[in-house]
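Field log, afternoon session.

UNIT: design team B
ACTIVITY: writing a sequence onto a fixed backbone
BACKBONE:
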């Protein structure tokens, strides 16, 4: 493993963070070095600290432990991510016989330098009880291969000699902190501690010394592992499907979304992480035993649960048979999870509420690693963790054996209030886990709708003709919201491309919940004189494209069995056509009929179909000359033209977006045409 320390970069960090103590600047520098390497630390894992001095408000020098705060990741840590805690008080706590988690958190919080700081790490006391100035803790892959060996202590001896002390497994908190300090005090020459089933600590008097020792220890472990012959996976015999990854995933994902939605009443996204190793593992004989043991380090359990669900699908004849097969595998998983919960809860006599029993990681023969979460971020975290876990498991068995924490210890971790707090208690956004497919998404109403749906937590599949504008729109939304945003250049009159685009929606998110069929264009001409070709073109864009999109969306809705909403952009032209706008008004009138037909034919499946009847929105549709012309024809200025409605207020694309959102959320509304035009009796539906 490469040692990435550079004197010049350390100096640069000191200069960059010149408003805080040099100790903190260097603490940030090496914390980021560690955090940036996924072989050392993943998603909020690991923690670091530095002991320093500062002056309090009454000008007294005080010793302070600056330690990683919860909610911060090492790779992006900044000074506020290292809350300062009064060290003398923390050290005094060591004299206690015991300290509950709640009391520990309280002691740490009430001795912060800054009352606004995040909670100091759950491993704060471990950092406090050791005397070293700098301390680094990671869950490095190589250290976990060693820490999960059944004879980890002996293996450590072989690799590290006496330079690393061994701490038997204890759950993080007061007891572990005491035990770790005792191990250190038995041999003060050690440069670090290996926490069995958990990870590696190193320490030193400088940032560089502690970091160097960390990289050195991990390198020694890596070299030891590299000398062992990797065990080969034995490919599964029999019906492991061989249909191509995309085909398997696309058949499976909407079914999973649906089953998860039905079980939890929430919405989920499903992702496939492409990896040849994961695919080989999922398609191996070894997978059924090796994957069912446990997580590589305890805090992964809140991201991946203890065990992945294994699938070796056989039923390809029909969607229904495949759904039955997946549903029955899930039922078994739920039952086992419930048993695990009940057994441990009863044995420990604790009062806990069962978490949902839904697996977050699936290993699918012939496909590989699939992760499911309520957000794209959750699926990414679970996938990153599990890819590393596969590697750790494989190497562990190649070195000797894999003996991670057993169920009863993992239960304590999974149901530990301090671990659950890491997942955040903030209220889920209204459209969390939902997926919206929006056409004409690069500008105007489509873009306004995309922004609003993203703000509410929906993942987006954005389609438009203009690549430049589309990418700009997608980047802008990505910059503001943490939802998934996929941009697809698409001409909605290209039937094949539209049908194929739904395979892409599934490949990205596992399915779809809302179709906002918005793309359109106003064509003009007196209806008696218009070329039939032009009228047909208008119908292709303003009617048939909507129909193709809707039919594909409905096909997916029916597989998911969790409802779904079609939202069409009709126009006031559907009810109140303008002179010489027949080529536009006719297909738009047909869209109103289409909206009602879908409502009628698919209401029984919980699928809703609604449209918006908007007018006079300043968008690309309304070229400036057209506006001027029309306004002039009515003796109005352009601004007054846009306000010439009953409410005398201009209607914006954001108003239409709000209408789409309202219809998306109106669970008892279908076959409805919502007018958003500031009021125009002649155009109001009757
Ligand atoms: Zn840890």
């Amino acid at each position: 493993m490469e040692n990435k320390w550079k004197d010049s970069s350390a100096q640069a960090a000191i200069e960059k963070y010149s408003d805080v103590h040099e100790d903190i600047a260097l603490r940030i520098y090496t914390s980021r070095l560690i955090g940036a390497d996924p072989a050392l630390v993943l998603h909020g894992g690991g923690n670091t600290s530095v002991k320093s001095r500062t002056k309090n408000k009454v000008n007294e020098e005080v010793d302070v432990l600056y330690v990683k705060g919860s909610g911060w990741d090492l790779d992006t840590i900044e000074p506020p991510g290292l809350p300062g805690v009064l060290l003398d008080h923390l050290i005094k706590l060591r004299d206690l016989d015991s300290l509950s988690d709640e009391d520990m958190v309280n002691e740490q919080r009430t001795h912060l330098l800054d009352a606004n700081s995040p909670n100091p790490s759950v491993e704060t006391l471990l950092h406090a009880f050791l005397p070293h100035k700098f301390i680094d803790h990671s869950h490095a892959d190589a250290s976990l291969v060693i820490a999960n060996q059944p004879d980890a202590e002996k293996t450590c001896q072989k690799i590290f000699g006496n330079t690393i002390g061994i701490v038997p497994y204890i759950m993080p908190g007061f007891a572990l902190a005491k035990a770790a300090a005792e191990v250190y005090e038995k041999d003060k020459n050690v440069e670090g501690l290996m926490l069995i089933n958990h990870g590696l600590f190193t320490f030193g008097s400088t940032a560089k010394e502690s970091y160097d020792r960390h990289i050195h220890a991990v390198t020694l472990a890596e070299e030891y592992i590299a000398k062992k012959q990797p065990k080969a996976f034995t490919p599964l015999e029999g019906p492991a499907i061989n249909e191509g990854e995309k085909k398997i995933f696309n058949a499976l994902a909407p079914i999973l979304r649906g089953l998860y939605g039905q079980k939890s009443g929430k919405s989920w996204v499903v992702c496939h992480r492409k990896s040849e190793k994961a695919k080989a593992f999922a398609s191996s004989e070894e997978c059924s035993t090796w994957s069912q043991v446990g997580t590589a380090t305890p805090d992964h359990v809140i991201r991946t649960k203890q065990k992945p669900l294994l699938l070796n699908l056989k039923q390809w004849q029909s969607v229904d048979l495949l759904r039955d097969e997946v549903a029955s595998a899930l039922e078994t998983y739920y039952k086992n999870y419930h048993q695990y919960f009940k057994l441990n809860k009863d044995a420990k006599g604790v009062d806990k509420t069962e978490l949902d029993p839904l697996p977050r990681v699936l290993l699918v023969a012939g496909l590989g690693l699939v992760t499911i979460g309520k957000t794209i971020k959750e699926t990414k975290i679970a996938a990153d963790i599990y890819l590393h876990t596969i590697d750790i498991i494989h190497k562990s068995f190649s070195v000797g054996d894999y003996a991670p924490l057993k169920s009863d210890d993992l239960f304590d971790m999974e149901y530990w209030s301090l671990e659950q707090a890491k997942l955040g208690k903030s209220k889920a956004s209204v459209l969390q886990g939902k997926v919206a497919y929006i056409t004409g998404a690069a500008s105007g109403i489509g873009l306004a709708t995309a922004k609003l749906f993203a703000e509410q937590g929906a993942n987006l599949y954005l389609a438009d003709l203009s690549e430049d504008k589309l990418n700009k729109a997608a980047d802008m939304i990505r910059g503001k919201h943490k939802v998934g945003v996929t941009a697809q250049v698409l001409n909605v009159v290209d039937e094949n491309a539209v049908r194929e685009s739904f395979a892409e929606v599934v490949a990205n998110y596992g399915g779809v919940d809302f179709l906002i069929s918005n793309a359109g264009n106003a064509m003009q001409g007196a209806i008696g004189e218009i070329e039939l070709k032009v009228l047909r073109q208008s119908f292709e864009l303003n009617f048939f494209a909507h129909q193709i999109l809707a039919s594909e969306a409905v096909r997916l809705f029916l597989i998911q069995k969790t409802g779904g909403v079609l939202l069409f952009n009709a126009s006031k032209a559907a009810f109140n056509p303008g002179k010489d706008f027949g080529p536009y008004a006719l297909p738009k009138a047909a869209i109103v009929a289409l909206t009602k037909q879908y409502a009628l034919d698919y209401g029984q499946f919980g699928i809703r179909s609604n449209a918006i009847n908007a007018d006079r929105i300043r968008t690309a549709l309304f070229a400036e000359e057209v506006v001027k012309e029309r306004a002039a024809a009515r003796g109005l200025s352009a601004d007054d033209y846009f306000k010439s409605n009953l409410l005398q207020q201009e209607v914006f694309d954001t108003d239409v977006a709000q209408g789409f959102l309202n219809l998306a959320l109106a669970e008892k509304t279908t076959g409805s045409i919502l007018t958003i035009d500031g009021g125009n009796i002649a155009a109001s539906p009757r």
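LOG NOTE: The chain has 25 helices and 18 strands.
NEXT ACTIVITY: expression trials, pending approval
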